[in-house]
């Protein structure tokens, strides 16, 4: 075989794979947009007048309006939003306060039987929530905590704690042990070295953990719908009430759904790299 | 400034298991630079970490300046340590890293700044004081770790393989700098390495460990010239000493088909130890090389055949095998451009009277 | 203990602690989280066990009495319960497996550099982030609505008329919505797996003459195995608890045709006010979950504890 004959055969596969990878890129775009399209449509519909929302074939060109969002606010979404924000923020703070020391105890300075402890934490996520809802309801009812935002806060804290412990553990494990050793050589007490040396290193991880907890707490529906009513209900509960009272008003529903989903979608976009780490209990780095 | 004493110091990880450090006895003088060296798993790092307070002392004592350190936390031992991966605080600047130990000891801000500046000056870090560690090169990070140790003016410096993350060239220059700085500061230093070249070039004295057991604690020259046992003999020196287990014969020992005559002093040592076989150690540079044609019949040399020639410029190493039934490998150091080639038949004759003899059973020096 | 007293043979580890005071100092940071979790997540199960032996309906006050295992007998003879259990299995497995296959394909598409890759990835993960209640609402109205839904519009050229998806195929409709929500998670997980593949191994395989498909089957797929298993188990853990989608889209109907166990138990407890009966169902579900999950967990505990093998 001569060099001149070799040339074209060398080039051909490269060219072919270039075409192939362009096709695959186009496919990826189609899949991505296709998957996202329902959400896009929801957001578009939220900016329509009801009349524009109810058309067949669906209307793509329309004059955008904020009327639907105004209506959602008039329907009283405000207190629900406040409840959601309060339950989400406070439960997330509680989770971090409980999970950070616990994760420290199972990573940097491990206690005995670490595996058992960690196993216990995931196993609580394995058990179906529904099996606990009856006694929770009964107890909460007996102590007069129904329709109380603190009930949700406690339950959301418990719900997110296992994930947070596992996730924080995986962040602690990335801290070199030598940092703590160096700090203790340098004369720092354990508390001081945690505060001054370890905490700054794990704080991005804490932020990621917090975002995951926020996502879950914000989206939670089961406890909220069963344990709250007018006083402590959160945004998902509002959405349900909204659909039943308003019937099928597409544009208004879409506006409400967009508002309910927006905070978490933004949080998730920010934390997308950490999302899997949280959901897999830290098993995937 | 203080002397450091390991007095039967021991570390056991699990009851009943072999101790990681077994009854270590070392008396390190004030201002001395001592290197702990040994293969991996020898317990050298564990010994250092016991001194640092990062590992428990399960038996015996470690004393710094006469004070027993059992149960004393690291932060109260007045020691500073340079870690293998430097363990710099990633969120603090170089200056803050170096000031941290002073801050923890309640030194006021102005004095901290002065001391850090002085140390940075010595280490050539003045321009980097406001940078974070990740913006530094490996060598610079190593210096920051050194700086964090020296600003404190501790009683003892501990260094755990501080050069192993540097490239070869940097390692050689930093080696010299650390040794020079230690001598200038006069702070007692314990330095751990697996590299016998570092051990030999840096230490006032070297402690060689194996399997948690101290093998020999001596000056580099003594370690080289009078290894206490066959392990020390084989570990120190590069290429390693040639060790042959040989039957004792009338004038010396039998090696392959020929007899190797030994000087009278060595022969008397063998006979007073009552050995019929002996472990003979000959360093690569203790051979002279002749061509096989010039030596045939004389019987005073050992016949060998060259397998590989490594030309290093100033020297050359010949890797050969003896003309015996096992084809025992042998290493010979000759002057550069020796002219030997692969396949050459050579005759080796020991040049020195200072050959090393060990008991083949215990490995102890005879 | 002093040196002179110590016998020369045995050195015992002076372990700092996992016992005594030092041990408690180490454990202390763990305790609040542990105690809190036990109280909030474990105690209720004990109550559930107790309630399951009671005949107790909230709408009939004073009717409460001990009935032994009668509630359990009723659970096992309840044909609706069996149907609902089957629905739960179908819904969970179907959604998990389809989401996994799609997620794997999408991850492979995204595991190459192309223009706008980060943007497409962001678009693709969004369904996962949408509040499940809002997502279910979106599917029920904007997509599945027989008259104005996008799905019928898109399918109309293919002769699909005004299908009422949710009434005709309730369970499938719910499953589609769940697959849409969970595919992104599987994709992210597999993508993490793909990106953790050491490049030198791939290069070595190519040097050894493996083709693209060969590399995928012989090197990539075995590497992904751990991630696929993890995705299936985690997806199942979350999806077995599906409540929002059913509540919003079908209310379990028609009848119990699209109800799963969480929804059915919820109905019994909060619409039927039958505490004893729903507690017994809860116990049955927990026992079944424990059996399945210990089996599943044994399979993948390696991944959870962060084993570096594979």
UniProtKB/TrEMBL annotation, chain A:
Kindly state which keywords UniProt assigns to this record, in alphabetical order.
Cell membrane, Membrane, Transmembrane, Transmembrane helix, Transport
**Domain ABC transmembrane type-1, which positions?**
81-271
The transmembrane residues are 21-44, 80-105, 117-137, 149-168, 197-218, 224-243, 250-271
Give its localization: Cell membrane
Tell me the InterPro entries matching this sequence.
BP-dep_ABC_trans_perm, MetI-like, MetI-like_sf
A Pfam family that this protein carries is: BPD_transp_1
Q: How does it sit in the membrane?
A: Multi-pass membrane protein
Q: Which family does it belong to?
A: Belongs to the binding-protein-dependent transport system permease family.
What's the protein name? Carbohydrate ABC transporter permease
Q: Which organism is it from?
A: Pseudonocardia ailaonensis
**Taxonomic lineage of the native organism:** Bacteria, Bacillati, Actinomycetota, Actinomycetes, Pseudonocardiales
From TrEMBL, chain B:
Which GO molecular function terms does the record list?
ATP binding
Annotated keywords: ATP-binding, Nucleotide-binding, Transport
Q: Which residues form the ABC transporter domain?
A: 4-236
Q: Which domain of life is it from?
A: Bacteria
Q: From the record, give the transmembrane residue ranges.
A: none
Q: What is this protein called?
A: Sn-glycerol-3-phosphate ABC transporter ATP-binding protein UgpC
Q: Give the source species.
A: Pseudonocardia ailaonensis
UniProtKB/TrEMBL annotation, chain C:
Task: Enumerate the subcellular locations listed in this protein's record, separating them with semicolons.
Answer: Cell membrane
Q: Does the keyword 4Fe-4S apply?
A: no
Instruction: State the protein's name.
Output: ABC transporter permease subunit
Q: Which PANTHER family did the record assign?
A: BLR7065 PROTEIN, INTEGRAL MEMBRANE SUGAR TRANSPORT PROTEIN
What species was this sequence derived from?
Answer: Pseudonocardia ailaonensis
Give the ABC transmembrane type-1 domain ranges.
85-296
- Gene3D superfamilies with a match to the protein in the record: MetI-like
Membrane-protein topology: Multi-pass membrane protein
* TM region positions: 30-51, 84-110, 122-142, 174-194, 227-249, 279-301
Q: Which CDD domains match?
A: TM_PBP2 (cd06261)
- Which family does the UniProt entry place this protein in? Belongs to the binding-protein-dependent transport system permease family.
Among InterPro entries, the record links this protein to: MetI-like, MetI-like_sf
Keyword line: Cell membrane, Membrane, Transmembrane, Transmembrane helix, Transport
Domain of life of the source: Bacteria
Task: List each coiled-coil range.
Answer: none
**Residue span of region Disordered:** 1-20
């Amino acid at each position: 075989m001569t060099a001149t004959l070799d040339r074209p055969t060398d080039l051909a596969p490269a060219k072919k794979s270039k075409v192939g990878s362009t096709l695959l890129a186009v496919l990826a775009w189609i899949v991505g947009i296709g998957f996202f399209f329902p959400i896009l449509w929801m957001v578009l519909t939220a900016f329509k007048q009801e009349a524009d929302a109810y058309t067949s074939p669906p209307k793509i060109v329309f004059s955008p309006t904020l009327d639907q969002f105004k209506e959602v606010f008039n329907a009283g979404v405000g207190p629900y939003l406040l409840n959601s924000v309060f339950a989400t923020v406070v439960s997330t703070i509680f989770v971090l306060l409980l999970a950070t020391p616990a994760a420290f105890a199972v990573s940097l300075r491990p206690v005995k039987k670490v595996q058992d402890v960690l196993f216990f934490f995931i196993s609580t996520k394995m058990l179906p929530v529904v099996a606990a809802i009856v006694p929770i309801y009964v107890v909460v009812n007996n102590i007069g905590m129904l329709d109380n935002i603190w009930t949700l806060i406690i339950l959301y804290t418990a719900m997110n704690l296992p994930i947070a412990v596992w996730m924080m553990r995986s962040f602690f494990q990335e801290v070199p042990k030598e940092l703590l050793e160096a700090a203790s050589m340098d004369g720092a007490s354990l508390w001081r070295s945690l505060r001054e040396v370890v905490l700054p290193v794990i704080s991005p991880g804490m932020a990621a953990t917090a975002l995951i907890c926020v996502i879950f707490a914000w989206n939670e529906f089961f406890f909220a719908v069963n344990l709250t009513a007018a006083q402590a209900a959160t945004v998902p509960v509002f959405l349900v009430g909204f659909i039943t009272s308003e019937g099928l008003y597409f544009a208004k529903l879409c506006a409400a759904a967009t508002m309910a989903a927006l905070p978490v979608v933004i949080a998730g976009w920010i934390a997308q790299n950490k999302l899997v780490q949280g959901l897999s209990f830290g098993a995937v780095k | 400034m203080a002397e450091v004493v390991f007095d039967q110091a021991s570390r056991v990880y699990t009851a009943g298991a072999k101790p990681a450090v077994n009854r270590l006895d070392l008396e390190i003088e004030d201002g001395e630079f001592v290197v702990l060296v040994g293969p991996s798993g020898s317990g050298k790092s564990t010994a250092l970490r016991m001194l640092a307070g990062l590992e428990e002392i399960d038996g015996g004592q470690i004393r710094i300046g006469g004070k027993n350190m059992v149960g004393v936390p690291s932060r109260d031992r007045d020691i500073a340590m340079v870690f293998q991966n430097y363990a710099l605080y990633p969120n603090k600047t170089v200056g803050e890293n170096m000031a941290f130990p002073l801050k923890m000891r309640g030194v006021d801000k102005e004095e901290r700044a002065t001391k850090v500046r002085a140390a940075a000056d010595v280490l050539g870090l003045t321009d980097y004081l406001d940078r974070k560690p990740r913006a530094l090169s490996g060598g610079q990070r190593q210096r920051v770790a050194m700086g964090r140790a020296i600003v404190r003016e501790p009683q003892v410096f501990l260094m755990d393989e501080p050069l192993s993350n540097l490239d070869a060239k940097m390692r050689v220059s930093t080696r010299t700098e650390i040794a020079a700085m230690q001598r200038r500061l006069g702070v007692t230093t314990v330095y751990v390495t697996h590299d016998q070249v570092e051990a030999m070039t840096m230490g006032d004295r070297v402690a060689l460990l194996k399997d948690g057991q101290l093998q020999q604690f001596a000056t580099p020259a003594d370690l080289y010239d009078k290894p206490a046992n066959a392990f020390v003999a084989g570990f120190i020196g590069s290429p390693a000493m040639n060790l042959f287990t040989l039957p004792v014969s009338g004038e010396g020992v039998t090696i392959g088909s020929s007899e190797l005559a030994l000087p009278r002093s060595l022969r008397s040592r063998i006979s007073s130890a009552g050995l019929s076989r002996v472990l003979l150690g000959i360093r690569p540079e203790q051979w002279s090389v002749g061509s096989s044609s010039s030596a045939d019949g004389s019987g005073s040399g050992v016949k060998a055949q060259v397998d590989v020639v490594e030309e290093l410029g100033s020297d050359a190493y010949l890797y050969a095998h003896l003309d015996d039934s096992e084809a025992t490998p042998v290493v010979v150091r000759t002057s550069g451009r020796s002219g030997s080639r692969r396949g050459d038949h050579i005759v080796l004759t020991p040049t020195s009277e200072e050959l090393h003899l060990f008991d083949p059973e215990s490995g102890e020096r005879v | 203990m002093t040196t002179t007293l110590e016998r020369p043979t045995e050195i015992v580890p002076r372990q700092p602690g996992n016992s005594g005071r030092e041990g408690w100092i180490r454990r202390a940071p763990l305790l609040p989280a542990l105690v809190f979790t036990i109280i909030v997540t474990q105690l209720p199960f004990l109550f559930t066990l107790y309630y399951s032996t009671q005949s107790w309906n909230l709408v009939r006050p004073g009717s409460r009495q001990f009935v032994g295992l009668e509630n359990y007998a009723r659970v096992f003879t309840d044909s609706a319960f069996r149907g609902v259990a089957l629905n739960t299995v179908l819904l969970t497995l179907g959604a998990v497996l389809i989401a996994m296959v799609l997620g794997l394909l999408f991850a492979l598409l995204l595991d190459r550099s192309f223009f706008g890759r980060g943007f497409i990835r962001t678009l693709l993960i969004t369904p996962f982030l949408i509040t499940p209640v809002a997502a279910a609402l979106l599917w029920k109205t904007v997509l599945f609505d027989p008259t104005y839904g996008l799905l019928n519009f898109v399918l109309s050229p293919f002769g699909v008329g005004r299908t009422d998806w949710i009434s005709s195929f309730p369970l499938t409709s719910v499953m589609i919505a769940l697959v849409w929500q969970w595919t992104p998670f599987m994709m992210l997980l597999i993508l993490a797996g793909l990106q953790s593949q050491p490049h030198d191994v791939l290069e070595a395989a190519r040097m050894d003459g493996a083709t693209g498909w060969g590399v995928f089957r012989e090197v990539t797929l075995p590497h992904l195995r751990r991630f696929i298993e993890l995705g299936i188990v985690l997806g199942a853990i979350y999806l077995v608890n599906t409540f929002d989608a059913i509540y919003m889209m079908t209310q379990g109907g028609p009848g119990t045709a699209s109800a799963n166990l969480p929804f059915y138990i919820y109905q019994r407890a909060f619409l039927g006010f039958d505490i004893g009966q729903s507690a017994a169902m809860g116990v049955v579900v927990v026992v079944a979950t424990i059996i399945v999950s210990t089996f599943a967990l044994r399979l993948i505990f390696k991944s959870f504890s962060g084993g570096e093998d594979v």
